[in-house]
Specification:
Blueprint: H1 2-16, H2 21-38, H3 47-65, H4 74-93, H5 100-127, H6 135-159, H7 164-184, H8 194-215, H9 221-243, H10 249-269
């Protein structure tokens, strides 16, 4: 009887304590960072399983952190960017030199990034219901991490030296959903609109064609990833400005000049002689 009463008291205390969203985000970032660091100590045969665990954990932890407010399209869209970023960063982590001096700072930035991403997802979630002042900042953060996730994932993709048709499929699988998230965040509708879907499909097709060209180009994986990231920067950046009715000729040419500069650097750095 005494044990039962003590159990009830403990249960009431736990139930009375409500963890805030920010605390959930911090706990999520710390947990994923610890798992990322421990991947350096596991066997190579288990590393891909560990990355899969990280991706699945990100999915369920994101649902837990945003629980009670997700509905409709948000159940799907708001979870994409955190999962893609964590997966890409985890895979890229293994491409870094096997030194704590290199990997610990990366893990630290990874944890901060996860926290910022969850804050961004939460802002989108709230902004879909009511006006919020932080939406502009969330758009900037969302675009930044879309570019970072694209760089990480396409870097790994080009590092595998796959046949051209798998490169095309990989680029589409990586960039298509990120285009969808980036464009949806400027409408925040209950469902994906036709305009967002069409723009995302066209941008994915263009990106896949660039990936096809790069699959025959004698460039290093980092240059290929930089090229794909630049493609997303131009297409998604201009489209988002268009969605806001803020696309001006000066801004358009700024994006084009950036893409041309990146192209020049890549052409110059390419070893054409094999």
């Amino acid at each position: 009887m005494v044990f039962f009463e003590n159990f009830l008291k403990t249960y009431r205390r736990v139930k009375a304590y409500e963890i805030t969203k920010r605390q959930k985000f911090v706990l999520m970032a710390v947990f994923l960072t610890v798992i990322l660091i421990t991947t350096q100590t596991v066997s190579e045969n288990l590393r891909y399983q560990t990355i899969g665990f990280l991706a699945i954990s990100t999915l369920f932890l994101s649902i837990f952190a945003l629980w009670g407010e997700l509905s409709g399209t948000r159940y799907f869209v708001l979870l994409l960017l955190p999962v893609y970023f964590v997966t890409g960063a985890s895979l890229f982590y293994f491409l870094l030199p096997v030194r704590w001096l290199t990997r610990l700072p990366f893990a630290f930035l990874f944890g901060i990034s996860v926290y910022l991403l969850m804050l961004t997802s939460n802002i989108y979630n709230v902004a879909a219901i009511r006006t919020i002042a932080l939406l502009r900042a969330a758009h900037a953060v969302g675009l930044l991490f879309s570019l970072v996730a694209t760089f990480f994932l396409t870097n790994v993709l080009f590092s595998l030296h796959l046949p051209f048709y798998l490169i095309i499929l990989g680029v589409a699988a990586v960039m298509g959903p990120l285009y969808l998230v980036g464009l949806w965040s400027y409408e925040l509708e209950e469902f994906v609109t036709r305009r967002v879907f069409v723009y995302s499909a066209i941008f994915t097709l263009v990106s896949a064609e660039v990936g096809l060209v790069l699959s025959f180009w004698p460039i290093v994986p980092t240059a290929g990833a930089l090229s794909m990231t630049t493609v997303m920067y131009v297409l998604l950046g201009l489209a988002q400005l268009h969605f806001e009715d803020k696309l001006k000729p000066r801004v358009f040419w700024e994006h084009i000049i950036v893409s041309l500069l990146v192209l020049i650097v890549i052409v110059i750095s390419t070893r054409w002689g094999g």
